[in-house]
Write a structure and sequence with these properties.
There is one protein chain. The protein has 197 residues and is an alpha/beta fold. It has 2 domains: 4-52, Helicase, Ruva Protein, domain 3 (Orthogonal Bundle); 75-168, Dna Topoisomerase Vi A Subunit, Chain: A, domain 2 (3-Layer(aba) Sandwich). It is 41% helix and 13% strand. It contains 7 helices and 6 strands. The protein has helices spanning 4-13, 21-33, 36-52, 87-94, 124-133, 146-158, 184-192, and strands at residues 54-55, 62-63, 77-84, 101-105, 137-140, 165-168. Strand 1 (54-55) and strand 2 form a beta hairpin. Helix 1 (4-13) crosses helix 2. The chain is globular.
Length: 197
């Protein structure tokens, strides 16, 4: 049995997504082996989250400023809004250096089985942005799974009356893959998204 303070940290870390009690225990035991100055820096970094990190009032991304650096950048096109499920998706898309528009985080995906509807997500704020910013295009960047597809269909239906260009990320075969091992949905999307050579 660990001392109360150590067990308390283990219990907190074990609540993180994909981390169970054993992994949490290993993390805490590793933290205890760190030099005191590194552990103090780590502790300060966690402490700085409180009060210094906030959600952008426009896109809902985490930032030290409001609006965030993307929403406040005059070189970015506010008429193109890429809708994503979570903040991590923005980071992945930004690494491509191919998108110059704005983002909107829904905070999840539609999941009828779990009772999550579009209205329960950060969707009304997207409607407000469309009305206020005169958006021309909405890009739906959802994961290619059942929840992502359901979310895309729900948003597309909800935005029909706004007369916007609504697009989605292309789907298809990843580079280096074998056709024989691809599933039917991937192959179907690859055929539908084919381009001229």
């Amino acid at each position: 049995m660990y001392p109360k303070n150590i067990q308390n940290i283990i219990d907190h870390i074990a609540r993180f997504p994909t981390i169970g009690p054993k992994t949490a225990e290993r993390i805490v035991l590793y933290l205890l082996t760190m030099p005191a100055d590194e552990l103090e820096d780590f502790s300060q970094a966690i402490s700085n989250i409180i009060g210094k990190i906030k959600k952008c009032s426009q896109c809902s991304n985490y930032s030290e400023n409001d609006p965030c650096g993307i929403c406040s950048n005059p070189k970015r096109d506010a008429g193109i809004i890429c809708v994503v499920a979570k903040p991590q998706d923005i980071q992945a898309l930004e690494k491509t250096n191919n998108f110059i528009g704005h983002y909107h985080i829904l905070g999840g995906t539609v999941n009828p089985i779990e009772g999550i509807r579009l209205e329960q997500l950060n969707f009304q704020k997207l409607i407000d942005r469309i009305k206020n910013n005169k958006a021309r295009e909405i890009i739906l960047a959802m994961n290619p799974d059942i929840e992502g597809e359901t979310t895309i269909l729900s948003i597309n239906k909800a935005l029909e009356s706004y007369h916007l260009k609504i697009t989605r990320l292309a789907r298809g075969l990843p580079m280096g893959s074998d056709i024989e091992y691809a599933d039917e949905v991937t192959l179907s999307n690859a055929l539908k998204g084919r381009k001229d050579i």
